[in-house]
Write a structure and sequence with these properties.
Number of strands of chain A: 14
Largest sheet of chain A: 7 strands, mixed
Helix content of chain A: 25-40%
Radius of gyration of chain B: 20 Å
Strand order of the largest sheet of chain B: 2-1-3-4-8-7
Oligomer: heterodimer
Number of helices of chain B: 12
Distance between the termini of chain A: 43 Å
Largest sheet of chain B: 6 strands, parallel
Number of helices of chain A: 11
Structural class of chain B: alpha/beta
Largest interface: A-B, 41 and 45 residues
Strand order of the largest sheet of chain A: 3-2-4-5-7-6-12
Helix content of chain B: 40-55%
Structural class of chain A: alpha/beta
Radius of gyration of chain A: 19 Å
Shape of chain B: globular
Distance between the termini of chain B: 39 Å
Shape of chain A: globular
Order of helices and strands of chain A: EHEHEHEHEHEHEEEEHEEHEHEHH
């Protein structure tokens, strides 16, 4: 066990897999000589060489498309989008080629696309998005969003070993602000399994990524009997865990930093409404960013992104319902 | 009749490396493509093909000539006018026709239609509709070969229209930067659906290869041996670490973009001119005039192909539709498996030449 930041845990997981399996390699913009825009691959090119830490041209469809071909031929590419937002420039290869290849042709595409996501630091509209809903809506992709350092490592290892294309959302705001105990050596967190971050009886906050920390902080400050369920994987959803929590508490708040309409929260709410209706004591509510592009100036940005006070207020309202 | 010697000699008189039997096969595969597609079109008109029907009539020399060069361990992303390449690798007419009809025994078992198939057991990856996405995938395959130091080649096809797309630029650029072992076959068939070449590009795409740092060669796309030669040189270059090649094949699409397209936009004179250059007619003439074949033998080859296609059609028609529940299967893979190897019918490959080629490429 060692205490490390969320970012270090990602590096750690990636480095260990690259040491263990020489078919694992990284590709993306500025990941080699520069060590990555966020330094996730700092030191990698020195250890693994320029072949396995490949600085690509500025072309996201290339990054994803080349990953697909290499994966089909038995390599295990871990592609990095410099910012999650730029996946839109690689969207075609991801949803049309990677996602549908096994269904149509019986050919597995074992690849990972790492997506540095999230806002809160005046990144503006193109450096702050949480685009996971686009990929939850693309059958054939798996989508994970770790909240803790432990899960950041464990989910990345699982993603790399999964024979399917996996979108891995690493929240930029968590990189250096979140620390945790991370097991040494081989550490695997299975995909498709949620984690009860905090046990409670009166209210379930179902969240993933940065919203998990808001929920934990709010629960502690409110000193209420609030359960926090960290989804960890948003596709496929752990519907058993979602329904178990909803049935137990009868009140659910779904929280994510991504914008509201057709976000993962809507999906979770629909699942609960369909399968746990009789156990509900309140409507399922969502705490999300409203349907706006992320603004640049701090007062605007702080107003749209869910804050701790918003979380506490939403919890109080549901508890009182 | 004197049997021609086979592959290993590189002197001018025997440059082609094609045996007599290789020539028979080249004709056979073109005929199989032509006859299978004619039968497919008939089935479409009979209402037996859900969706649309696409063929590569007039372009048979390209997919056959180019793919004939490849070895068993090479890989292909085959496009919609390249049925000949599937046959060269080992797909049979029944599985092609069954795929068009959505039957269980089609290459994809009903999961995907028309030419969106690739037999993974024969080293082929099925295409998507978005063009030229497969060029980027081909680069990824070539990158894997390069990373592992393998003397293997990745080949793909695209039309002249697809070269207008940004992903074509990305793919050519990447292949040039890393000298990837890729062979890019550009089928310039004069129309992208209804769009003529002068609305698709300002400069003939073959000239852009130099801008990407690798050779571009222009060939008569209706001359199967010219295709073979160009592809052979390109494959040798790729295997030897010399990087990619763009082979632009001048041809003409003799049917519409799909069977639903009446080709009203094609000038009649242009069509008539290209009809005279039919690749199969030309090769039959070349075989009799230059390679000592006699007409009866050619007719016998054709009759064999006709029978094979007729039997294939019967078999395909007898194949059942897939179970409806299969529509829910296979979204995710449980495990990765390697692609299988293709048949590689060129005589060069059956003579232990792969070992020789590896030696020549300087790899153990």
């Amino acid at each position: 066990m060692a205490e490390m930041t969320y970012l270090q845990a990602i590096s750690d997981g990636l480095r260990e897999e690259m040491r263990r399996d020489e078919s694992v390699f990284c590709l993306g913009e500025d990941i080699g000589a520069f060590g990555g825009a966020f330094k996730v691959t700092d030191g990698f090119i020195e250890e693994f060489g320029a072949d396995r830490v490949l600085d690509t041209p500025l072309a996201e469809n290339l990054i994803v498309g080349a990953s697909i071909g290499a994966a089909i031929e038995g390599m295990k590419p871990v592609a990095e989008m410099q910012f999650a937002d730029f996946i839109s420039c690689g969207f075609d290869q991801l949803v049309n080629v990677a996602a549908k290849m096994h269904y149509r042709q019986g050919v597995a595409v074992p690849m990972v696309v790492r997506l540095p996501s999230g806002g809160g630091f005046s990144g503006g509209a193109f450096h702050s998005q949480n685009p996971e809903a686009w990929f939850v809506h693309s059958p054939g992709l798996k989508v994970v969003a770790p909240a803790t350092a432990d899960d950041a490592k464990g989910l990345l290892v699982s993603a790399i070993r999964d024979p399917n294309p996996v979108c891995y959302l690493e929240h930029k705001g968590l990189y250096r602000h979140i620390k945790g105990e991370v097991p040494d050596g081989e550490h695997i967190v299975p995909l498709g399994e949620a984690r009860v971050a905090r046990q409670g009886e009166e209210l379930s906050v179902i969240a993933y990524g940065s919203a998990v920390h808001l929920a934990m902080e709010a629960a502690e400050q409110l000193e209420e009997d609030i359960e926090v369920l960290d989804l960890r994987t948003v596709s496929p959803l752990d519907t058993d865990a979602i329904l178990a929590s909803a049935r137990k508490t009868g009140k659910v708040l779904v929280a994510h930093e991504a914008t509201q309409s057709c976000g993962v929260g809507g999906e979770v709410a629909a699942v609960i409404s369909e399968h746990a209706f009789e156990d509900l004591d309140a409507p399922v509510r969502r705490l999300t960013t409203p349907d706006v592009p992320i603004p640049f100036s701090p007062p605007l940005e702080q107003h749209v992104l869910p804050q701790l006070d918003d979380m506490k207020e939403a919890c109080r309202e549901l508890l009182a319902y | 009749m004197k049997l021609e010697n086979s592959s290993s000699v590189r002197d001018g008189s025997r440059r082609s490396g094609l045996t007599r039997n290789d020539r028979v096969l080249l004709l056979r595969y073109m005929l199989l493509m032509r006859l299978s597609e004619e039968r497919g079109l008939t089935l479409y008109k009979q209402g037996k093909v859900p969706g649309s029907f696409y063929d590569g009539r007039g372009q048979e020399a390209i997919s056959v000539g180019a793919s004939f060069v490849l070895g068993p361990r090479d890989r292909l992303c085959i496009l919609h006018r390249d049925l000949g390449a599937h046959f060269v690798r080992g797909v049979t007419p029944d599985r092609y026709l069954a795929n068009y009809m959505g039957r269980k025994d089609g290459v994809t078992g009903g999961k995907d239609g028309n030419m969106h198939f690739g037999d993974r057991r024969l080293g082929c990856v099925g295409m998507v509709s978005m063009l030229p996405d497969m060029a980027q995938v081909t680069n990824g395959i070539a990158l894997a070969f390069k990373m592992r130091g393998e003397p293997r080649v990745a080949m793909t096809f695209f039309g002249e229209g697809a070269t207008a797309n940004g992903q074509w630029h990305e793919a050519m650029n990447f292949a040039g930067i890393h000298r990837l072992p890729a062979v890019f076959v550009l089928e310039n068939n004069k129309f992208a659906y209804s769009t003529p070449t002068d609305l698709e590009y300002a400069v003939d795409p073959v000239n852009r290869a130099e801008g990407y740092g690798f050779p571009g060669v222009s060939v008569d796309g209706n001359d199967v041996e010219a295709l073979f030669e160009a592809a052979r040189e390109a494959a040798e270059r790729a295997r030897g670490g010399g990087g990619p090649t763009l082979i632009e094949c001048h041809t003409m699409r003799m049917h519409g973009h799909g069977a639903h397209d009446d080709m009203r936009y094609v000038p009649k004179e242009m069509f008539d001119e290209w009809e005279k250059r039919d690749p199969i007619d030309r090769y039959e003439r070349a075989l009799t005039e230059q390679h000592g074949f006699q007409r009866p033998e050619l007719e016998s080859i054709r009759t064999d192909c006709e029978r094979e296609v007729a039997e294939g059609a019967e078999k395909a028609l007898a194949s059942p539709m897939p179970e409806p529940e299969r529509g829910l299967d296979g979204v995710y893979a449980d495990a990765w498996e390697p692609l299988g190897d293709g048949k590689a019918p060129w005589s060069f490959w059956s003579e232990g030449a792969e070992r020789r080629e590896r030696q020549e490429a300087g790899v153990a």
